Amino acid sequence: MLEVLRRVIQEVNGARNLDAALATMVRRIRKAMRTDVCSFYLYDREIEQLVLMETIGLHSQAVGRVSLRVGEGLVGLVAEREEPLNLEDARAHPRFRYFESTGEERYSSFLGVPIIHQRRMLGVLVVQQSEKRRYDEEDEAFLITMGAQLAGVLAHALATGSLTRPTLPGGQALFNGVAASPGMAIGEVVVVAPLADLNSVPDLIPTDVEHEIVRLKEAIGRVREEIRAAGERLANRISVQELALFEVYQQMLSEAALSQEVEKRIREGQWAPGALADVVRRHVLYLERVDDDYLRERAADVRDLGRRVLAHLQEETPQIPDVFPESTILVGDEISVATLGEVPRERLAGLVSARGSSTSHVAIVARAMGIPTVLGMVDLPLPRLSGAEVVLDGHRGRLFVRPSDELKNRYRSLIAEERALAEVLEHEQDLPSETPDGHEMPLMVNTGLAIDTTVSLRKRISGVGLYRTEVPFMIAERFPGEQEQARLYRDQLESFAPMPVVMRTLDIGGDKDLPYFPIDEANPFLGWRGIRVTLDHPEVLMVQLRAMLRASQGLDNLQVLLPMVTNVDEVDDALRLLDRAIRELGEEGIEATRPRVGVMIEVPATLYQLDALAERVDFFSVGSNDLTQYLLAVDRNNPRVAALYDSCHPAVLVALARLAEASARLKRPICVCGELAGDPAGALLLMGMGFDSLSMNAPSLPRVRAAIRRVSLRAAKELVDETLALNTPSAVRSHLFGRLSEWQLAHLLPPRD
């Protein structure tokens, strides 16, 4: 049966259109299952009916004419319950309904399975037999598998409008991904064709090594010029913080990085395109296995640069259109920052990519530019989307293809409301983050790149709540030296002095390894990472601690944060190394004082060790994203399960409330850095729970500040009490929306269904 299944799937995928695919499927299924009838009913949302779309065994004239409501007849029952129905005598079932035009009165047995795509019921697949027959488990499993296969085919057909039945006007379809940049847009799709294929470059021995090196340098030079030009086009549209990402591209292309490594490979006996492909694939392979969302997305940057250089080596040009529609929704398998810079900003309305997550470079720039973006959108029929009208919802990670007039009008209204709100909020961004009853709620910012500093933020924040130190390690071919790290850390500390800058020690390991420090594990999410790695390699941690201490000379605004702590022993060991670094610098004539040290609360085990930890450290910092993922066992960047990730899950909120209470008892300041802190409703909850500060991405600051300035601390505490009594994430979200509506703050939240 498995071989039959493979053949059927292959034929269906190779069909020239949906009608041919359906005809192939019903005929092959009937033959494989040795049954009399196989039929497919499609759920038409326009008329809210299940329509007979294809059959072999029933009367062909019934196709497109027979329809029934969800819950009506046996087919409607399958759709209503969204589960298989297997009957030996269908006519004896109380829900059986006879349709004269189908001729199905001759059939006794019935097996129906629902067709479901991303939790949406699309139709029902049915087989029938004239004599009484109880389809066995293998039959049922086979039909369920075929239904799952048909779900993807149908979703693509709905998206592209290839359903031509008169009962299906419009063919509106919905695709879900990971929300990466908030906002909404209505526009026309422009599909970005991929650049040169790094995986199809043959291995060739160069006849002239020096010529290959010259070719490589010329190609890299052209790409550097392209990146420079793209950056200049965006210079007046994004801040220095985001514009610095183009400098990161230039650093990757520099002699000390990509160029040098590829040149070495050429001298080892590989022609330029092959050497480039080898080096890029190796870096991408390492980066894609990374657990940290921010660092994993660097794979996209490396791959994009590699493709661009390869295109010039192959004398190809990137497939970017010359003319863009007035409201362009750029769609591609993977969209880079450089590609973004090649589209006229006044025509760019939104971005959609099959790859990527909210921490990718393109997401960072998109947020800075105010461009709605959804990434990680699987199942997109890219080649057939070009020119389609779409509605993009960057708040909820949705793309509506061929939207109805009603949906478009609704989103036009929502877009107008958002624009008006942004103008209002901008006027109060330099005002204090203080509640009406006088409670100050410090707001801090998360930074990632070494140059993620901007003077414009200084007046709006209370410091840096999380600085990721991993980036210098990712763009090097070796562990960066002490002086090298000290210069980078000094830039950060000076930029925000005298405000505190919380620097997290190197968080690598497990599936977050470095190109020059690979680690292979069966379960990397629970593996060798964070403090576990650096304590096993104290020589690496010591260099970093010494560099931080050197960088803080005369500034005294450094705070050190230890990631992925599970045991108290790990903290003791790290503190001993810190004291040793201070002693060593003292022996070298450099007087260093011990900075404040904190522990990152992201492993659930730390929730039960707070008393012991408080005896050792000065503050706590909650990594709400990772803590939520570990508590709920959900990868938030996996679009197939992302809906289960919810930082407003009651279990998460109870854990956070108890954590804040314990921190107050232990007299240890506690900060939250993560998406919950950047959500206006979440920020009010955290303030009411008693957290001392909130750290978030810069674009989240305006709405959070507006919420805090309009809700008293007393009201926030009452909100916490009410919310903790609820049992489901949906109930929590509904209650938060209701309360913010009462306070006339619902406009600060993402739009609701």
UniProtKB/TrEMBL annotation:
Subcellular location: Cytoplasm
GO process terms (BP): phosphoenolpyruvate-dependent sugar phosphotransferase system
Keywords: Cytoplasm, Kinase, Magnesium, Metal-binding, Phosphotransferase system, Pyruvate, Sugar transport, Transferase, Transport
Main location: cytoplasm
Catalytic activity: L-histidyl-[protein] + phosphoenolpyruvate = N(pros)-phospho-L-histidyl-[protein] + pyruvate
A GO CC term assigned to this protein in UniProt: cytoplasm
Top-rank taxon: Bacteria
E.C. numbers: 2.7.3.9
InterPro entries: GAF (IPR003018), GAF-like_dom_sf (IPR029016), PEP-util_enz_mobile_dom (IPR008279), PEP-utilizing_PTS_enzyme (IPR050499), PEP_util_C (IPR000121), PEP_util_CS (IPR023151), Phosphohistidine_dom_sf (IPR036637), PTS_EI-like (IPR006318)
Cofactors (names): Mg(2+)
Domain GAF intervals: 17-164
GO molecular function: kinase activity; metal ion binding; phosphoenolpyruvate-protein phosphotransferase activity
Family statement drawn from the similarity comment of this UniProt entry: Belongs to the PEP-utilizing enzyme family.
Protein name: phosphoenolpyruvate--protein phosphotransferase
